[in-house]
């Protein structure tokens, strides 16, 4: 029997689309190729990093290659702002400044570029964060797919709110701010003309005001993560791994909109692995759970906040399980590769 490894092992192998999916292939590419080329121990893979020498300042960078450029609920311009603002927020930070870099394919209609930039500018203004620098490059036809955007954000943390993927503790409640699966299914349906986009829209939106509502709880908020690529499954697995804990969630408690469930049933997808752009998962001290939920529900972005599970007092470190509707348990694995390409 011949065993085939899904990740590149020698010079004859190549990068796969799945290496950019945010799942197991991405982790292996980082661990075996990218991170060893960089100096130092990066520690847990966070959404944003602390700036050396400036412990209350954080930085995050992201690139957006979503296809199509426009979809119900958003577009690549607003998504670029929201994605970076949210990565800063997941470290408990308020956005201070953004940079924006454009890679434009020759032949892109100026009307489309103008619409994207208008949306990006409005999203930044609505989020209260200035775009302070940027860059523009144009490449030949076929050298890119219409338009790619890179953004970098600087943020300042809120007082004692210092969440990290490595700080989940036994007994913590797992809280979700709203329904899952809306962004990934909307983008896929629009791109493939499946028809579901008439019933759903992307949830892309900034979450920094929701995180600010959690600031009074300080050290009781242990982890914040927005489940983008790889969905809720990837985020929970990353947290369980980095915190060396076992996590269990309740299937009945996870809010999955009916159109998302229908689309996933048709396509053979698990809603837990579908990307989101407007919700967060939080690990909070058990005795603060109800107060945290009230605070989240007081903000529009957290109106649908629910408790979906807990960190188990014991169990295999790094394992995530789902208690099903019939009371059985199944392991929620880290997604392997790309199921929904080009969704962010």
Note the main attributes of this structure.
single chain; 344 residues; alpha+beta; seven-stranded mixed β-sheet; 8 helices; 14 strands; globular; disordered N terminus
Oligomer: single chain
Number of strands: 14
**Protein structure class:** alpha+beta
- Helix and strand element order: HEEEEHEHEEEHHEHEHEHEEE
Mean pLDDT: 92
Strand order of the largest sheet: 9-11-8-12-10-13-14
The unreliable regions are 1-8
Query: What general outline do the C-alpha atoms trace?
Result: globular
Estimated share of beta-strand residues: 15-25%
Q: State the end-to-end CA separation.
A: 38 Å
Describe the largest sheet: 7 strands, mixed
Gyration radius over CA = 20 Å
Please tally the helical runs, counting DSSP H or I stretches of 4 or more residues.
Answer: 8
Helix content: 25-40%
Describe the structure in brief:
The chain has helices spanning 24-34, 76-89, 110-127, 182-192, 208-214, 231-243, 258-267, 289-297; strands at residues 49-51, 54-64, 70-71, 74-75, 93-105, 131-139, 147-157, 173-176, 221-225, 247-250, 281-284, 306-311, 320-323, 329-331. It is of the alpha+beta class and 344 residues long. Strands 9-11-8-12-10-13-14 form a 7-stranded mixed β-sheet, with helices on both faces.
